[in-house]
DNA sequence: GTGAAAGCGCTAACAG
DNA sequence: CTGTTAGCGCTTTCAC
């Protein structure tokens, strides 16, 4: 899912021979305060007619339409959407609330959301909540205050639940992180199964002491993945050791690194330290590899590592990361569609959706 | 201007046991259409008074204020900002246009912007332009249509120039990428000097064949860094070889990886391939390290690598990346402040500002 | 096919 | 201190 190119005027763009070719023609009058009324006057029609052509209504005589259009771009007029929004009672803005914009996993999802939103004439307002309930609530209030028409929430389930109670009627959907019981439309993956897949891969490579570096248990996905991990181990006849598990309140590289170092140095019964680690996000896993290296362990020879998400970076680190791939782009796109659907038909029963994940085997495990 | 809502999500749409438990307590009345008038009535005062307490004006008797406040939260009323915005003629939305939200460098800057925007009562609308002039223009139009009060642009200078000609009067500022000649307020670093610093570091380590993996020349910073690279080499008595230089139209890891592989395999006069590479972004540099490894070169033993930006990941890869640190957070914060300043006083002469960079030496070079 | 007029919900004079 | 009132710029009946 790589970006794209967008060459524009590349290559030929010389240092700056002439920075302003535009000999200062008369651009359509920047026109600060210019209202539909002036355009109407200039075109010799009524405001109603101008409004009609602006909105592409059918019932306007071509000749009239042309007159109006001419007046519009002679004057450089742009509709004032503030007024339009008030009148039509919609802002055409969609909120997206993420715990951390800097996380590449969320970044890709956000792209998916943005792309379908724009496709449908909406803009996306990105909100970095830092997983803070207070900020979350204040952003959510934008819905009630009519600043936004709908919202997509990727924040921890614990936060969502609080939100849901206070406002189950508001138009919002959950993405990646969701509680099916909550009655809010959602899209995500089967975290329990995915975690099991990761662990079973490690098992199949002969590992029996498998560590889990997990995120905050505020996240339902963290609890689900942990359960998947636990059950997979148990099914293989292994009794999970508590000392193999850690919960972090951050997904940063640094957090993963120090957690891994800690995990390996912990007093384990002689050589009973984990021979493999399952980290619930790639950022964590990349940190883990770094942390392992810092305490003299090699990956995958001494310790195998599997991550989660399959961000684009996963293939680039050394060793390339074995991981569970989530369809990030689609997750975002689907969330946006679900929301749009809800907006179009508030009464319809919007379903929950699960998208498929898959195990990507590279060299780290 | 499409508005239909396309199909829902396909894939495994869960059976959806019971999608709407909806305990239906009685929260303060979700109150869809509730206007200031009803609150006024309920409080036994006029709309003007309600408005006054809502906006924290002084001249309201405490008793009256309390009555109003009581009515407000008894009814669960929230102001309709659509109306407020129209009346006050401002949207309190700031646009941020970036070429790629997924790039960790931009992500951190965006955080800086968002933080000071919120601090000042603004929200930030994030726009991923993909460095596409068309999308850029359409986003920019949001300013004219009053959807946003101001904008911060991080897109290529070539695009900015087109924008500037069409609308130098609009309230916007440039960040990281800027043309001082353009008369638009900006914040960034001294790219020429920074690139020189990177190259001089390599020189001091004894390298004389230094490659440059650069981004698209649409970016002024790319041209400036190239010049810094060229001059540093020349000053050291080295004649730069054209075959040491590459321009990429992407900053993705993959792009860096394949460029590096290509650079090393190119037919150089016998063993005249570069012994060091300067990449103009950390993402590129990380890709470069990966690409080098894929053709059997070790870093830094066979080839040294220095990057640019100092994203958090730089310290986590193997080997940790030597790089030029940019004060990303401050860049964003400063850009936001400049814009706010311009908004507060449109006539004031807002200056350009350069922030300091610094060389961070780690193990890759 | 086109125009006149009534608001959308709020803020800000201006009176009292 | 509080209430009345006039719009902000647009869309949308309802007449003609």
Question: How are the secondary structure elements laid out?
Answer:
Two copies of one chain form a homodimer.
Chain A: H1 36-43, H2 47-54, H3 62-75, H4 81-88, E1 93-98, H5 104-119, E2 123-128, H6 133-144, E3 150-153, H7 157-166, E4 172-175, E5 186-189, H8 191-204, E6 210-214, H9 220-235, E7 245-247, H10 253-265, E8 276-279, H11 282-294, E9 304-309, E10 322-325, H12 328-344, E11 353-355, E12 358-360
The structure holds a DNA duplex (16 and 16 nucleotides).
The appropriate CATH architecture of the largest domain in chain A is: 3-Layer(aba) Sandwich
Calculate the mean pLDDT score of chain A and round it: 89
Number of strands of chain A: 12
Sketch the major β-sheet of chain A.
Answer: 6 strands, parallel
Shape of chain A: elongated
Structural class of chain A: alpha/beta
The CATH topology assignment of the largest domain in chain A is: Rossmann fold
Task: Please sum up the structure shown.
The structure is a homodimer of 365-residue chains. Chain A is α/β, with parallel strands linked by helices. Chain A has 12 helices and 12 strands.
List its salient traits:
homodimer, 365 residues, alpha/beta, 434 Repressor (Amino-terminal Domain), Rossmann fold, 6-stranded mixed sheet, 14% strand, DNA-binding
What does this structure look like?
The structure is a homodimer of 365-residue chains. Chain A is an alpha/beta fold and 365 residues long. The first copy, chain A, folds into three domains: 36-79, Orthogonal Bundle (434 Repressor (Amino-terminal Domain)); 91-188 and 329-355, Response regulator (Rossmann fold, 3-Layer(aba) Sandwich); 191-325, Response regulator (Rossmann fold, 3-Layer(aba) Sandwich). Chain A is 41% helix and 14% strand. Chain A contains twelve helices and twelve strands. Chain A has helices at 36-43, 47-54, 62-75, 81-88, 104-119, 133-144, 157-166, 191-204, 220-235, 253-265, 282-294, 328-344, and strands spanning 93-98, 123-128, 150-153, 172-175, 186-189, 210-214, 245-247, 276-279, 304-309, 322-325, 353-355, 358-360. A six-stranded parallel β-sheet of chain A has the order 2-1-3-4-5-11, sandwiched between helices. In chain A, helix 1 (36-43) crosses helix 3 (62-75). At the A-B interface, helix 4, helix 5, strand 2, helix 6 and helix 10 of A face strand 1, helix 4, helix 5, strand 3 and helix 6 of B. Chain A binds a DNA duplex (16 and 16 nucleotides) through residues 35-37, 45-49, 51-52, 54-55, 59-61, 64, 79-89, 146.
């Amino acid at each position: 899912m790589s970006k794209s190119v967008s060459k524009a005027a590349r290559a030929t763009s010389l240092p700056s021979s002439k920075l302003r070719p535009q000999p200062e023609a008369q651009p359509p009058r920047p026109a600060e305060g210019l209202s539909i009324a002036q355009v109407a006057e200039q075109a010799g029609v009524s405001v109603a007619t101008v409004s009609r052509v602006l909105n592409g209504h059918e019932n306007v005589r071509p000749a009239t339409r042309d007159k109006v259009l001419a007046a519009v771009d002679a004057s450089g007029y742009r509709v004032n959407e503030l007024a339009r929004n008030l009148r039509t009672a919609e802002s055409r803005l969609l909120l997206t609330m993420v715990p951390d914009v800097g996380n590449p996993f969320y970044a890709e999802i956000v792209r998916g959301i943005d792309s379908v939103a724009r496709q449908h004439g909406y803009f996306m307002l990105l909100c970095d909540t830092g997983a803070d309930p207070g900020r979350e609530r204040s952003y959510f209030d934008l819905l009630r205050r009519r600043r936004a028409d709908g919202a997509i929430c990727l924040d921890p389930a614990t936060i969502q639940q609080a939100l849901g109670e206070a406002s189950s009627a508001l138009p919002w959907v959950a993405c990646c992180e969701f509680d099916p019981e909550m009655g809010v439309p959602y899209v995500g993956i089967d975290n329990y199964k995915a975690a099991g897949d990761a662990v079973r891969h490690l098992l199949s490579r002969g590992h029996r002491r498998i560590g889990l570096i997990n995120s905050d248990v505020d996240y339902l996905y963290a609890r689900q993945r942990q359960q998947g991990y636990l059950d997979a181990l148990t099914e293989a006849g292994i009794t999970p050791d508590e000392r193999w598990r850690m919960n972090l309140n951050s997904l940063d590289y640094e957090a993963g690194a120090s957690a891994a170092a800690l995990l390996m140095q912990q007093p384990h019964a002689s050589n009973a330290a984990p021979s493999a680690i399952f980290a619930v996000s790639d950022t964590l896993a990349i940190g883990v590899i770094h942390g392992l290296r810092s305490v003299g362990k090699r990956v995958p020879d001494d310790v195998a590592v599997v991550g989660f998400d399959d961000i684009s970076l996963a293939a680039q680190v050394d060793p390339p990361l074995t991981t569970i791939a989530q369809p990030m782009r689609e997750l975002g796109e689907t969330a946006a569609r679900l929301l749009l659907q809800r907006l179009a038909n508030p009464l319809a029963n919007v379903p929950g959706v699960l998208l498929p994940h898959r195990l990507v085997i590279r060299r780290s495990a």
